[in-house]
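Below is a filled-in request sheet from our internal design queue. Each sheet records the structural input a requester submitted and the sequence that came back. We keep these sheets so that new team members can see what a complete request looks like end to end.

REQUESTER: design group, bay 2
PRIORITY: normal
MODE: inverse folding
CHAIN LENGTH: 317
BACKBONE (tokenized):
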């Protein structure tokens, strides 16, 4: 699919053996959700409920925190440079969270307590990709908005952009199912099963499903002089890394001269059953994305080929 400042400019919905897919079908975008969580925090900055430069400790005033978090800023979480990694997120932990009957918001608060009780496990200021960075950002929105991350995302991002076909967790059973790649075999996974997605506590880092047109609307919000979701100055700050030597900010990998705002944003996302790849070319005012219900390396190879085909067709490149 492609988009411009004006919105969606083209969608190709094609299944295997030439099958045409319903444009309303929803696709799991995995870690590309991070850009949405970052945009949600930025929108909360615009309305005065969050602020740039806030220390992680100050985001959770009612939770006791290790002194190391006192001067680590939210921008460092958004750049994966706070020293926080997914050290304890393993299969056993994921299964325990799926079995936890508490609401996701309560689980996230418990997770925040665990994280803040000690110092970050890695050195601050160095890029170390970790999903927990964005779970903390999502939990910070919950703290200030007094609603769940899911409710805030629906109200502040999807509703503002008039995206109706979006939600959380596995996409509905009526559309494509995510598929697990085992050698040459692709095994469909029933969306009603717990293994169909990561546990909801992690969704701010990778739990959105969305239609192709809805995703194009989100990508288009980064283009043009007057972005519809957040102010231009806020967007510029969001896309500025926490340190000059970093090339990640706001849920995006950044390409461009280090002394200026990135002209190209890109990101891949997968929950192992789906794969999403997105590119925003801000210089030419175009966005591209490819979505597939196939995870792992196989899914990444599919989306890479699709993006190559789309970019060759584009008049801007």
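RETURNED SEQUENCE:
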């Amino acid at each position: 699919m492609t988009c411009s400042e004006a919105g969606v400019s083209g969608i190709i919905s094609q299944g295997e053996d030439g099958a045409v897919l319903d444009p309303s079908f929803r696709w799991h975008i995995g870690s590309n959700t991070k850009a949405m969580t970052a945009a949600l925090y930025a929108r909360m900055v615009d309305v005065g409920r969050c602020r740039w430069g806030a220390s992680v400790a100050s985001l959770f005033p009612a939770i006791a925190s290790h002194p190391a978090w006192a001067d680590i800023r939210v921008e460092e979480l958004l750049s994966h440079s706070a020293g926080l990694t997914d050290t304890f997120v393993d299969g056993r932990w994921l299964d325990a969270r799926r079995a936890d009957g508490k609401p996701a918001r309560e689980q996230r608060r418990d997770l925040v307590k665990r994280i803040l009780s000690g110092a970050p496990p890695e050195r601050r200021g160095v890029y170390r990709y970790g999903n927990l960075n964005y779970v903390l950002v999502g939990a910070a929105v919950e703290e200030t908005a007094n609603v769940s991350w899911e409710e805030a995302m629906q109200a502040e991002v999807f509703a503002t952009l008039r995206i109706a076909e979006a939600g959380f967790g596995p996409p509905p059973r009526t559309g494509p199912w995510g598929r697990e790649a085992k050698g040459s075999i692709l095994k469909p996974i029933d969306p009603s099963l717990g293994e169909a997605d990561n546990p909801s506590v992690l969704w701010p880092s990778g739990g959105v499903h969305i239609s192709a047109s809805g995703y194009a609307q989100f990508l288009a919000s980064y283009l043009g002089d007057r972005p519809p979701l957040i102010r231009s100055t806020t967007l510029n700050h969001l896309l500025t890394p926490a340190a000059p030597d970093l090339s990640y900010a706001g849920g995006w990998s950044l390409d461009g001269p280090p002394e200026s705002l990135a002209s190209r944003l890109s990101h891949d996302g997968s929950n192992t059953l789906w794969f999403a790849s997105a590119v925003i070319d801000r210089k030419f005012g175009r966005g591209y994305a490819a979505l597939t219900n196939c995870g792992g390396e196989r899914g990444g190879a599919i989306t890479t080929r699709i993006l190559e085909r789309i970019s060759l067709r584009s008049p801007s490149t």
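SHEET NOTES:
- The chain has a mean pLDDT of 91.
- The chain is about 35% helix and 15% strand.
FILED BY: M.R.
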